[in-house]
Design goal:
Elements (H helix, E strand, L loop, with lengths): L3 H26 L26 H8 L5 H11 L12 H10 L7 H4 L1 H32 L2 H12 L4 H4 L5 H17 L2 H12 L9 H18 L3 H35 L17 H10 L12 H31 L2 H33 L3 H29 L14 H17 L6 H4 L4 H12 L3 H24 L8
Helix pairs in contact: 1-6, 1-7, 1-20, 2-6, 3-4, 3-6, 4-6, 6-7, 6-9, 7-19, 9-10, 10-12, 11-12, 11-15, 14-17, 14-19, 15-16, 19-20
């Protein structure tokens, strides 16, 4: 049988081919509602523009694939951040597609033109990033749920999620999912350095990426409790909290560095004679001002009768998010009633140390295989096998010790443990923000990279009772319908989330 991870990668790639095919077919069959995406005014800078494409029609067709927010991501990539409202679109995606357009796809610039190559780079990058994100989603799900079948079901749902069209277009969803899911996987695997870097990058893709610092805070609280209560080493607890604080600062750093860049360009070196209102604030936060001033984002500001269709459009994902929160809150409540929090914390930390040990030992074995293979192949292979056997036995012993020490809670942990708590809290905050603060129709893609939604949906699909079968049918219809609607409406510049 095909390994589950390989199967997830294949499904993720197949889903991208499907979404791209549907989007291109929709563009061929229907006329775009708004054709302004094809307009490309010259950059405000005095630098000479790139040479035009000899294939004008093809270049225009490729450039017009940047629709809705894709236009705002392509513009900074081509011209830099020219306008105040442009700073709402964080720099990771524009910087990445510039890098691709000037390196891998540079030979296409004389043929298609620079803007078209930027758009093409964005499409290639995001679809590849989604496949990698799906792989990390499966690995993270397996780590948290401890159930291969449940992890696979949730990963399949993620591959065909209702916001699929955004993961295959010039939006930041794919990069955010890649770095947030990858960062969380490495965090719960014990690879803190890699986790910090990836989560910091997620914060430079989307503003809500900075919230991922909360997972480090949660991990630090577990470690501090273990150090202070079980090991009776208060200094070790303080060290864990200080390390988490430094990592949190590092994760927030890209977002606030970009805000400082905006302040420098607009407030210090801006061309306007009068300072912008946000420049005079005690805390001059550009992102918050843009969201409020240009898009009308704010608490209850979207609660208007005319926005009722948008609330209906977002109701499926919000309902699924609320169900996920309730489902896992009940599970955690039952878990805490059955066993002590103390035991849960110990189990979570010991399992994390086992995962970290496995990862480091695998790297050690790999290095040994490389070094011994070039000198004494026969003797080296036997030594590596012995070392691998010892490593496996040690990891297995640690694992069995952990399991035997916590035999009384194993049945309840089939779908997770206390490690579910930060995911539930994160999703609850995101759902509250999406419903009460943001443009509610954005909820479909805003919540689309939250693992508990797919974990809970997969749980419903696997449930044998009649009521769950009806909900399973509705979930499948919802996912399929939004993929089809998104491919048709979004690609032709019609409103969709």
């Amino acid at each position: 049988m095909e390994p589950p991870l390989a199967g997830v990668v294949r499904l993720a790639a197949a889903s991208r081919v499907l979404v791209l095919s549907l989007s291109l077919l929709a563009r061929l069959l229907f006329r775009p509602y708004d054709t302004s995406a094809s307009l490309n005014p010259p950059c405000l800078s005095s630098s000479p523009s790139a040479p035009s494409s000899p294939l004008t029609n093809l270049s225009a067709a490729v450039s017009s694939l940047a629709v809705w927010d894709g236009v705002h991501f392509a513009r900074p990539a081509e011209c830099g951040y020219e306008y105040e409202q442009s700073f709402a679109f964080l720099p990771l995606l524009p910087a990445s597609i510039v890098l691709l357009a000037r390196s891998l796809f540079a030979p296409l610039v004389p043929v298609l033109g620079y803007r078209a190559v930027l758009v093409l780079s964005g499409y290639v990058l995001n679809n590849v990033a989604f496949v990698a994100a799906a792989a990390y989603f499966y690995r993270l799900s397996l780590l948290i749920l401890k159930d291969r079948k449940a992890a696979y079901r949730a990963s399949v749902l993620f591959c065909f999620n209702p916001a699929s069209v955004f993961y295959s277009s010039l939006y930041s969803e794919s990069l955010y999912a890649l770095f947030s899911l990858g960062g969380l996987f490495y965090l719960f695997s014990g690879a803190n350095t890699v986790a910090v870097i990836m989560l910091a990058l997620s914060g430079s893709a989307r503003s809500n990426g900075a919230l991922n610092a909360g997972y480090f805070c949660f991990q630090a609280l577990l470690q501090a409790y273990d150090a202070a209560v079980r090991k009776n080493r208060p200094l070790l607890a303080v060290q864990a909290l200080v390390a988490a604080a430094l990592r949190t600062v590092f994760i927030f750093l890209p977002f606030f560095a970009f805000q400082a860049y905006g302040y420098w360009n607009i407030c210090v070196h801006g061309s306007s004679e009068e300072l912008r209102p946000w420049c005079k604030a005690k805390v001059p936060l550009l992102y918050g001002f843009i969201q409020s001033h240009y898009w009308g984002v704010g608490f209850l500001r979207y609660f208007q009768v005319k926005q009722l269709p948008n609330f209906l459009l977002a109701s499926p994902v919000l309902s699924l998010a609320v169900y996920s929160i309730i489902h896992y809150t009940k599970m955690l409540h039952q878990l805490f009633r059955t066993t002590s929090i103390h035991m849960q914390i110990i189990t979570a930390l010991e399992e994390r140390s086992v995962e970290s040990c496995k990862g480091s030992n695998d790297m050690t074995v790999s290095r040994s295989e490389l070094s011994t293979g070039s000198t004494n192949k026969t003797h080296g292979n036997s030594m590596v096998k012995q070392r691998k056997s010892v490593v496996t036995e040690k990891a297995s012993a640690m694992f069995h010790d952990t399991m035997s020490a916590n035999q009384n809670i194993k049945e309840i942990q089939d779908e997770g443990s206390i490690l579910l708590l930060p995911f539930v809290l994160h999703l609850a905050f995101m759902t509250f923000t999406a419903f009460f603060v943001m443009h509610v129709q954005v909820s479909t893609r805003f919540l689309s990279s939250s693992p508990p939604i797919y974990w809970a949906a997969g749980h419903i699909l696997a449930s044998p009772n009649c009521s769950s079968r009806r909900w399973s049918y509705l979930i499948c219809v919802y996912f399929i319908a939004y993929i089809l609607l998104g491919s048709l409406l979004f690609s032709n510049f019609y409103p969709f989330t």
